[in-house]
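From the pipeline queue, job 12 of 40. The input is one protein chain; the requested action is below.

Action: predict structure.
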Amino acid sequence: MPAFSPWRLKSRLESFTLLGCEAEPRERNEEPASSRRSGDGPEDCLRRLLLVRGVRAGGLGGVRRMPSRRGFNRQPQKRGRMMTIERLTTEAMLVEENWAAAWASLREAPVSPPTLVEETPNYLRIITPGVADSLLNIIMRYTAQRPVTRDDVEEAIAPFRRAHVPMQWWLMRGSEPAGLREQLALLGMESWGGAAAMTLRFDGWHPPTLALAKGVTLGLAQGDEDRRAALNIICAVFYAPLQPMNRWTIDNPRFTMYLARLGGRPVAALAIFTHQRIAGVYHVATLASARRRGIAGALLTRALKDAQAAGCAYATLTATPEAKHLYEQVGFTTCGVMEQWSPGYRLAFSLVQGREPTLSENPYWEG
């Protein structure tokens, strides 16, 4: 059994809370925008997502509905507000779905031990037996038709207990089933706060003109040297371990990497994950010595222009408060909050070690 360190676990969780939030290969196979079929526009992307999630055009289905209001159809302003709420909800689902697809893509990395993906009617569970790192273990997209109980949560995390690995639990605030947050807290999970879920609609989007420092070059990280350089930047900025991050970058064929150089030196990177014409932006990272020069914004804009040209309808990402302004400058708008939960010390210890910590092993003992 590996030695358990609460500080190592804390570092991993804090790092991954930020991945894809700071402040980009292979060829894309998507058909060009000029050859797009009808039914592939932004509205159609939303409609397909709603159908996949069991949501129909007349309501929000599997997500929490807003209460009905008497005389609703006779109040255009209220109807407009409700339509705005529905729009924000469905766009937040785009963010969640892209994250879910990105997590599921970890099974495509040709490394050992393999990541296992289980999509049940109620949740997506990603588990990597033998790797006690939260970067590779999660539950998300949890739904339920009744209030969630302690037994429901225990059933969901049982495979992590058997594999002796820690895990995360992500949810989109406002669409989670009744009782989930309360049961997570009772179990010993702790909320690490939320990241802003943001979307950019490519229809009508024009890339902003951003000031760029002299000597900066932007492009795809195509060769092994460039991809390694991009990975090293991401790991350095987010304090993330190389081996788990390989599956989120260079070992995963679904991610397209971008790299920026300043005076020939690699200084910034990000990754794009495309799923059903939605371009997810991940791991935006700039070395401290190269910040405040417009490099991250320029690299992001380059990647978004490529995604738009490839026929994507939306781009999605999650952002920390510090980076939100950068993304707003490029054209992203906030549509929700992705909340990340992680095990507290006692639960993390019991997951990894298979038992409760003794008094001497628990630095948070309260008497």
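Job complete. Residues 199-337 form a domain with the Aminopeptidase fold (CATH 3.40.630.30).
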